[in-house]
Amino acid sequence: MEFRMKEGLEILSTTPAVLSAMLAGKSAAWLAARTTPEAFNSADVIGHLIHAEHTDWIPRVRIILENGDARTFDPFDRFDFQTLIAGKKIDQLLEEFAEARRESLETLHSFNLSEEQFALPGRHPEFGAVTLGNLLATWCVHDLAHTAQIAKTLASAYRDAVGPWLAYTSILK
Question: Domain of 43: which CATH number?
Fold first, then answer.
């Protein structure tokens, strides 16, 4: 499936509500769950998503529109969200993510992109040549991957509690 803005927006516009439905009002026990001691918990994932809204997706779209592949994207630090989330409750983080995403989508809409522009070249600091379409499709997949990560993280809290049903719970493997 090629990237199409209409289908991409179906994912990008609903992610904040999906994550809010999964996490809003959850107890500290659920929110502290991690699949491994070094893995992100749910609040970390939301912090990472907020950070990406500010420093990754729209800034990279702008770089492609303004410079093509003449300017390499700024590197993205996947862990540079910790100060952003320090001392904040999950409901506040979810609200911040929803607002940041709303602003990103307004900006994306203001570019009035055509399908032809999805072929515009960009330059990733690690991968090299990419296109605007690659970037936008990755934004959607990134959302879906982190939604799945949160579901897996929450499920992991009951890994031992499911007993013999572990054999049938693929999310815990």
Answer: 1.20.120.450
Q: What share of the chain is helix, strand, coil (3-state, %, to 5)?
A: 65, 5, 30
148, two tokens = 């799945």
Give one word for 68, left, alpha or beta, with left for phi > 0 and alpha for psi -120 to 50. left
Instruction: Tell me the C-alpha to C-alpha distance, in Å, between residue 161 and each of 23, 33, 34, 85.
Output: 21, 14, 15, 30
Q: In which domain, by residue range, is 76 found?
A: 5-172
Distance in Å from the first CA to the final CA of the chain = 29
Nearest CA among 108, 106, 102 for reference residue 62? 108
d(CA 22, CA 42): 10
Dist. CA 38–CA 65, nearest whole Å: 37
Predicted confidence pLDDT, tens digits, the chain (173 residues):
889 999 999 999 999 999 999 999 999 999 999 999 999 999 999 999 999 999 999 999 999 999 999 999 999 998 889 898 999 999 999 999 999 999 999 999 999 999 999 999 999 999 999 999 999 999 999 999 999 999 999 999 999 999 999 999 999 98
Give the chain's domain count.
1
